[in-house]
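Here is my example:
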Amino acid sequence: MIQSSLYAALGTFKPTILATKDAKEALEALQVWRFFSPHTPVFVLPDLRAHYLDDMRAFSSELKELLSTLGRFYTSLRSDPNTKLLAPLSALLHPLPCAKLLQSFRVTCLESYPLQELQEKLRLFGYDFVDLIELPGEASFRGDIVDIFIPGQAKPHRLSFLGQDCEDIRTFDLRTQLSDPPIIEHIDITPALFSLDAPTHAMLQQRLDKLNAPVFLPDLASLGFWVLEDFGCDFLTHYATILSPEAKEQAKEWHSLEPSPALERALSLPILPTPPHYQDIQKPANLQDFLKLNAAKKATLIAKNVDFLPHINAPFESAISACVLHFSTPTQLFLSMHSYETPGSAGHSKLMLNELTPGDFVVHENYGIGLFKGLVQQSVLGSVRDFIALEYQNADRLLLPVENLHLIERYIANQDMPLLDKLGKSSFAKVKDKVRSKILDMSSQIIALAAKRNLLKSGQTAIDMSKMQTFKKACGFALTADQEQSIAAILQDFASGQVMDRLLNGDVGFGKTEVAMHAIYAMSLSGKQSALFVPTTLLSAQHFATLKERLESFGLKVAKLDRFSKDKRVVLEGLKQGLVDVVVGTHALLDAKFKELGLVVVDEEHKFGVRQKEAIKTLSEGVHCLSMSATPIPRTLSMALSKLKGVSTLNTPPSIRQPSRTFVKEKTDALLKEAILRELRRKGQVFYIHNHIESMPKVQATLLKLLPHLRIQILHSKIPALQAEQALLDFAKGEYEVLLCTSIVESGLHLPNANTIIIDNADNFGLADLHQLRGRVGRGHLEGFCYFLVQDTQSLSNEAKKRLVALEKNSYLGSGASIAMHDLQIRGGGNFLGADQSGHIKSIGYGLYTKMLEEAICGRTQDVGVDLSLSVSGFLSPKLIASDSLRLELYRRLSFCKDLASVQEIQVEIRDRFGALDTMSTQFLQIIRVKILANRLNISKISQYGQNITLFMGGDQNVLLKAPSKDDEDILQAILCHLQAHAKPKPHPQP
């Protein structure tokens, strides 16, 4: 009732703070102030559901938003005593920092600032120093360039210095890391945590050391919030505060579970009264009827612009505003025609940092599986260059010039440790040939099948679009743009007269089933039946429940066929007679006979066995076919496939999905008990990931010792398939509270009641795996909790600590997510053709396998690049780009460049991000340009001795050039001039 109550009290509202039940109620209250009292300064705090001594890194984004809003609130209150604060009760239960801790300082163009002092000041202000900025509260110092992301600002800023003088300030784009053109005169830098001086920082650190709290990295970022004491302010007693009725109920509920002095203070506060006949209302389904029923009240309809106002036969007044109001008083009605805008996700850097880290297994296209040892600088033929060091069997080393980085891929496959290949042996070439011939067989089958399907005609399906519209409205939520496009593409396929063959790709919970149900409903409108195949009984039960609920109200008869079906004969007869419109089932469905089958939908096709796949193919030969997959595939593979079949992708997550809250902790019994009980209190279930099968019973015994009544189910890859399936079914039904398993928690599974995941020995997992495991929880309306546990914090390397802390403060993995996505897609590309390929994938890794598959489908052959034997120095200088991972990322992108324009773009980017290029960096870019032009002219080798240069053109047509001198610059210039004169730019293919 917050909107109507606040509207009634607005004229006489005296308190500074209105405490609400949660952030949603605070947002609703804000609308009233914005609409009826736009000149009152009002600030809104986020929810902060942290308990005393929680690691605040896990609440990083809320805390930064809270501190930056508080700073602005204090500033406004000093100049306007009528300033108001809307705060969820959870944000007011702990002391908040006083105004002294939230001061800012200004940096102005053309003024002097010693960089050392600026860096120290930012450290005291709580900024994290990183190589690449991704989140608010981070800063990066690279020579004369300083990047800083001030909390509360829409974009990060880049400051360029000349010596100590600040030359210019601009904002820059997080995704591309490139700066925007307009120059800004000055910026005010607010703290990422608190504005401290050195003595206060030291004092808070001392307080913190005495706490002895069980956090992963005890520092101000994790625990500073809990040691404020005299720097803190209890808002509930310091400012005049009033509670909303819902906030009061919330306080009572929390107090009954965990009493605290703060909650007692909250319960003694006055409540915002709701006068009689004042109420908040829902937006009515039929506006005209609703206004007629309330004809005695003056109605005001609010819209963002005139186009949104309805054309109805009822009197109303209109107002143009972005506010969202839905309430009525005894004499008035206020209704908005729009709802709240969903916040756009902040862009994340598209650069893949740390894609290769020393110790990773990699696959070289010609030499096979080796160990990546890092970047090394070597002098060869009197010139200095950067190389990638790779280690093979018997500790043999291979040095790969960085301009050929495109020849290696991180090794991704399903088993743990691959065998290193032997250098110099032709064994890897044999393995590759064997895999290539197998892939060619398969791809020719795929191509033949696609050609055959293209010739098949299906009667054009007439679809009543008004009925489809009604069906769409009944789903109860707004479809994403991706879903709309996919549905439109399917309906277009139906109307084309060709047989549809479409792949629908999208993560779990992104709404593939809704798209499939639109297709099924459209089929039923034309009088035909549909069959939905799933690989497991659990999925069968889940899909059946969804389809039944959604389709039966539209008159469709839905049935299920799997090994648990009691009425198999009835269902089979119903399909034959045409009494059943849609059937969901496992391979048990393959024996069914249909009266008129129009559509086959296959979910998670790669999980079916080879024979079952063949049978499904036969069944769906003359009918429309839609395959759904939760494993994404690489874009290049998807483009190759789109020549053969329709491909639709769902990339937009559902709007209700919240990122999971992540904690990194040292493993203790008390913590395990607390994490499990926290989930059981809200009637949920827990995944416990332990990646060592032999010691699982030991883990089970430990958990039962802590919580004797806990019901635990064990699941791992050695359990027979039927038994494993039964175990998952029992877990989905809620017969167990904890699923103790290896990391095989399947991607296609939807277990919305399991919202806590505990990962044992998290330091042994790769970033991508941790990101995927974390995505298993928090898929419904509830917030997911993810605990990364380590045995002993002291024994961890700094790198491992850094990686885990990054996970904790960033619920979206940033660059880690792009790597995780890349991994997933590469795996998806390999799995796309089924599990029978796993032997080949094991020997060459997913990356190379997918590359060969694309080449086979598109009929391309592998490019053999030019061999450069030049005694010319050139490398991206560590003085310009100090961080190895940033240099490696640039080397990687440069090695993939196919034209001079791409090299030029990267050159501009390096100048923008790191400052003016030195001689060595400029020469390296020239080497890349030589490589691109030589490949375009099919030159196999360029060699140079002194001033003499030879271009090997194939056959006997070698070209000899002579440079003006032996200088590196002259040699590169001579080669480039010749190549540019002969290499005509390739005409771009028409899109």
